[in-house]
Design a protein that fits this description.
It is rod-shaped and about 160 Å long. By secondary structure, it is α+β, with helices and mostly antiparallel strands. The chain has helices spanning 7-35, 41-54, 57-78, 84-134, 141-152, 166-169, 215-222, 239-242, 245-254, 287-324, 377-395, 400-418, 499-502, 507-519, 526-537, 572-586, 593-610, 651-658, and strands at residues 159-164, 183-192, 207-210, 226-229, 258-266, 269-278, 335-342, 351-359, 365-375, 429-437, 442-448, 454-456, 462-464, 482-486, 492-496, 546-553, 561-566, 615-621, 625-631, 661-666, 671-677.
Amino acid sequence: MAWLPDRARRGGVLTLLFVSLALITAVSVYDAEVGGRVRWAGFAALAPVVAGALLPLWPTMLVGAVALATSLVVYGLVASEVTFVSRLFAVGIVTLGAALGLIVCRVRFDRERRVNGLMIARDRLTLLTVASERIGSTLDVTRTAQELTDVAVPRLADFSCVDLFEPVLRGEEPDPGPIHGALRMRRVAHLSVLEGAPEAVVAPGDETYYPEEYILSRCLAEGRAVREPMRLAGDRLPEWLERDPKRAEHARKFGFNSGIAVPLRARGTTLGVAVFIRHQRSEPFDDDDLLLAEEIAARAAVCVDNARRYTHEHRTALTLQRSMLPRRLPRLAAVDVATRYLPAGGQAGVGGDWYDVIQLSGARVALVVGDVVGHGLYATATMGRLRSAVRTLADIDLPPDELLTHLDDVMIRLRSETEQDSPGAGFSATCLYAVYDPVSRACTAARAGHPLPALVLPDGRVDQIELPAGPPLGIGGLPFESVELLLPEDSVLVMFTNGLLESRADGTTGGITELREALSQPVTSLETACDALLKTMLQEGPKDDVALLLARTHALDAAHVATWDVTPSPEAVATARELATGQLAEWGLADAAFTTELVVSELVTNAIRHAGGPIQLRVIREHGLICEVSDGSSTSPHLRRARVYDESGRGLFIVAQLTERWGSRQTSTGKTIWAEFAPDAAVPV
């Protein structure tokens, strides 16, 4: 009875019926004695019918028995003036009413049972629909487990928890199962109808242990859902629960009465277990509840496995991404550098953002920031190939605009090689490449569709460096332009990817304004500046990958650089040696004089014999010593192996053996051959 749900109302109806019977009986006695009539017998027959329509079976039987007994007493013993036929008619009417009340009660009971069954089936179907909609809304393992408990409580259970194996949380493949013996798992999520889930023994994130005989252990060992009562006759607990004192104490305190443990299995892999417990509702779980719990757990297991696979791919891509970024930045006299890389939040996945700091010849440094379009392993792998290409092109000292042109060709070849295997993959990228020379304080930069860099001047002002935009890499057919500007010493060059601006809710323009304001704040170090900038710009977390590079510029003055013009004649070689060794003596590096003399002799001699004037010798004291000889020829020298009787071809080989690095670069007037070595290693060989 939907509108008489509790015992108080049923008791009121029963009392009212008895009072009505009493009144009807009194009136019937009076009517039979005075008038000799049985008119009120029909009203007495209504009481069992009303009881059958409103009350359960046993109250209906009681009302019918009372009505029949009173009619027998009234018309069999008390009403002597009524004829026998009238008495028989009255008793028959009441008997018929009692029988009709039982029939009505039975019919109503069957109908209510069918309606209740349909309502329960509808509620369970609704719960499955809710589970399909709400479980798996994200690719986060913890969030998916929490969604399972949110669906189960309070619709199915009063308390629910999800425990997963440790490898699942790391994205690894767990054992396929069945799993026997005691278990160690990690509590990922739980929920209760009671605030704070006080019945939980462990908190989310903590490791939990289950003995071999525990319901969860048996559930995974058998590979199927297990339903068991948690309260036996005499208010006793099951033996498997009694062996765990702490859980037994909670079971008694909160009155656990029934429990279900369901293994979370997907694609032949056991991920963990879901537990459902009732303690507020008195009715235990039945077979239909068990099937419902299995269905919900099966759907949740697939979502958890999808999240696990995503976690595995995300971590793989992130590991690959970080392995392709510089592990350790070089120690340079030209700049102090601080960098940050933040992967995108949510389901975007790891992208192709990168930065690099490349040591060039002549104490110069190349600063690079790039962004490959898209996310995932393809973007990460493309980033690695582009970074390798940038380093290779930087080693031959290409100007920024020429380097981007060659990088554009590399990107076009990558697309032609891979677009057939991965259609739809984005093969374009943006890049910002800058070269800073600490001797001249000149910075030459070019960009390919990349955000403009910012410059923080020594007085705290923040400017944007205006560079021609240039097309993104991979478009082809369009030129790149570079711009050269003079940077004051202690300026900070700020290079970043667009993820730093796109994470702002007010768009790119607002992001640039916020960027300028954040950079104008005084900071103690570049590392602090990186952290403060990211905190200001990414208050809601990065929506796209962010690569950030801050470089504070330094200058090498006359105390670190010595330059001489060399006459293109053989006699000038001795003069060049004397000038170089004299400068080393002033710097306190006389121990490196022998190696320096050999290097200067070979480089100057080659310039005089094979190139011609004008010739210039430059010695730079950085963290090491750099010897440079510039001439007017554009022909680059090559290292070759001289035969036993060859009179030449050994000069560059000697230079290569005495120095750590050597090479040549093209200049506007010819070329420069350089060699670099550490003073403490500059000893005779």
